[in-house]
Amino acid sequence: MTAEILLDKHKVRRSFAAAAAGYDSLASLQRQVGLELLRRFPLHGRDEVIVDLGCGTGFLTHQLAANPLRQQLLALDVAMPMLAASRRNYPAMRADYVCGDAEKLPFADNSIDRIYSNLALQWAQELSAALLDFQRVLKSRGSLVFATFGPQTLVELKAAWSVVDDYTHVNDFHTADQIEWFLQVAGFEGINVDSVLYRSEYSDVETLMRELKGIGAHNVNRKRNPRPTTKTQLQEMIKHYPRQGAGILASYEIIFVRAELSA
């Protein structure tokens, strides 16, 4: 079972840095999923060190900071403009900001009590290695809570592009079973994995594409077409995208995960 997704990490960083300014106006799904993640797996300890991994513009961090329990909150993101946007959005938020890569955490061994992450770990190039690093930094009885995209995400867009050519136009994502296996191999226990399919409505395919670009969710797979998409190719894809009444639907498979380390 492979743990690697063929992502261009430099392109991931550039995409999210460029998206920081307009991200919040388009990220309604991310906010919805973040609230559901906290509803399923709320904070419960006092005097703990909590990391929001891939904090983006700070929505989930702010929700965590609003908890009345006393905690040290660390907000980490690979894109400095995202951290700057979070500071602007929540100037009074009690959190320390860290610019770093989720796959190479800049934290000491056994120093973190809880890791939360909302729709960020799908950009990990090698998830199994990242989970091993999470296991390194977490204390005994520490926990990992995250939401990530599953392979049914944007299936309609994948199908429409498959008529045009054989390149990868939508990023690949791990299945729930793969994620559970990677967690077990990394030494996690008490694993809870649940997949939920969300569907969002759009007036047309162009609106969907603008949203994906606006939140930094570009196609960063290394099997993407190395040449720019032509107008003819784009029109051909749009022609084959399934209509739903006056608009279109886009599917997003969200995998909710909680896992723990033993004492």
Automatic annotation (TrEMBL):
Write out the GO biological process terms: methylation
Which stretches make up the Methyltransferase type domain?
A: 51-146
The first-level EC class reads transferase
What is the name of this protein?
Malonyl-[acyl-carrier protein] O-methyltransferase
Q: Which InterPro entries does the record match to this protein?
A: BioC, Malonyl-ACP_OMT, Methyltransf_11, SAM-dependent_MTases_sf
The protein's UniProt keywords, in alphabetical order, are: Biotin biosynthesis, Methyltransferase, S-adenosyl-L-methionine, Transferase
Name of the gene: bioC
Job of this protein: Converts the free carboxyl group of a malonyl-thioester to its methyl ester by transfer of a methyl group from S-adenosyl-L-methionine (SAM). It allows to synthesize pimeloyl-ACP via the fatty acid synthetic pathway.
Could you tell me the EC number(s) of this protein?
Answer: 2.1.1.197
Q: Which domain of life is it from?
A: Bacteria
Q: Which GO terms describe its molecular function?
A: malonyl-CoA methyltransferase activity
Organism annotation? Methylomonas rivi
Q: Which family does the entry's similarity section mention?
A: Belongs to the methyltransferase superfamily.
Keyword Glycoprotein set for record: no
**Catalysis: reaction(s):** malonyl-[ACP] + S-adenosyl-L-methionine = malonyl-[ACP] methyl ester + S-adenosyl-L-homocysteine
Name its pathway: Cofactor biosynthesis; biotin biosynthesis
